[in-house]
Amino acid sequence: MPKVAVLKEFNESVELQEYPMPSAAPGGALVDVALGGICGTDVHLRTGHLSVPLPLAMGHEGVGHIRALGEGLTTDVEGQPLTVGDRVVWANNIPCGSCYECLVLKEPTLCLNRKIYGINRKASDAPHLQGGWAETISLEAGTTIIKLPDTVSFEEVITLGCAGPTAIHGVVENLTIEPGSIVAVQGAGPVGLASAMYAKAMGAAQVIILGGPTSRIEVALKIGAADIAIDMDTYPTAEARLAAFHEIAGQGADVVIECAGIPSAVAESIDLARPNAQVLVLGQYTDHGPTPINPHLITKKQLKVFGSWGFSPAHYVKYVKSLPQLVKNHDLASILSVYDLENVNEALADVASGAVTKAALRPQTGN
Ligand SMILES: [Zn+2]
Ligand SMILES: [Zn+2]
């Protein structure tokens, strides 16, 4: 009887619940989870800041081994043969493919009918094992399953489990970063780190990270995601940060990537930008309300301001393809703190407090 972490009530502890092992769905697969990542979004899910069904099977990031293949499923998304025991990752969402956003706008991240493991799948509905914080997950037909390259570990994949494809969508696909570009990244959580690493991969001459706490800033520098850091603890006010930033970057950044998730960071991003710069607002997943900005500066500086919401299965495929090169340049696994699945509530608390940069749950096998 595999266990899955279930949220029954908002603000309550997450409970492990056992369900009978289902058979693999036609066109789908059963995967024994090796690691289930914890994302900042999970903290907001638990507190009811996002509208999700209860009881919720939690975990929208995961990697593992194929346990069983459903009838008709023989290859991964790229046509590589799949067999029992293969190491895989899956995109957590399945866009409907038939709504206006999917068909006409061709923006599956905006699809309102997306099925998302760990976010809108009820644990009480069969096949119950619908989240990645589980010993086994049941993936349905239409899930994008990706066989992992041999050179990439489970830990490396899950460290940027959501952040990596989010940065592929927002940074790699939306922004123009050229050799010589100065890039400012606000926020040193996983999305900030991933954005900084991709900015470097795209040729940025200098990546300056602004964030905190100090432990996260140290991680960003240690793994080479950023060249220079402006620590929130040393520069606690926007004025102080701006003065320190302009001392390094002169007129400002060619590209500013907001990954802080705090509304006031968006006002600050406009100040960090040089004239004609690009500003990407990537970190505002949760609605924390309005903030005063001076729109005159957007016009006067002729800024290009973008937003980007989550990621599609295609972004996940690109993320996995980028990993062999990314792990050569950055020690991703060193960022990860691993907890036993039984200690899910402790892990969630540590993510919420910022005590760890990135956490993942390791299920105990034996089901
Ligand atoms: Zn996430
Ligand atoms: Zn759709």
Write the layout of secondary structure elements.
Layout: E1 3-7, E2 15-18, E3 29-38, H1 40-46, E4 56-57, E5 62-69, E6 87-90, E7 93-94, H2 100-103, E8 115-116, E9 136-139, E10 145-147, H3 154-159, H4 163-172, E11 182-186, H5 190-201, E12 206-211, H6 214-222, E13 228-231, H7 238-249, E14 253-258, H8 263-272, E15 273-281, H9 295-300, E16 304-307, H10 313-329, E17 336-340, H11 344-353, E18 358-362
Parallel strand pairs: 11-12, 11-14, 12-13, 14-15, 15-16, 17-18
Antiparallel strand pairs: 1-2, 1-4, 3-5, 3-9, 3-18, 5-6, 6-10, 7-8
Helix pairs in contact: 4-5, 4-10
Bound molecules: zinc ion (2 copies).
Listing every helix as H and every strand as E from the N terminus to the C terminus, the arrangement reads EEEHEEEEHEEEHHEHEHEHEHEHEHEHE
- DSSP helix count? 11
Q: Any low-confidence stretches, pLDDT <50, length ≥5? A: none
**Cα separation of the termini:** 6 Å
Strand percentage:
15-25%
**Looking at CATH, which topology of the largest domain would you report?**
Quinone Oxidoreductase, Chain A, domain 1
Present as ligands are: zinc ion
- What is the helix fraction of residues, given as a range? 25-40%
Largest sheet: 7 strands, mixed
Number of strands: 18
What is the CATH superfamily classification of the largest domain? Medium-chain alcohol dehydrogenases, catalytic domain
Structural class: alpha/beta
Q: Judging from the principal axes of the Cα atoms, what is the shape? A: globular
CATH architecture of the largest domain: Alpha-Beta Complex
In total, the number of domains comes to 2
Calculate Rg over CA atoms: 20 Å
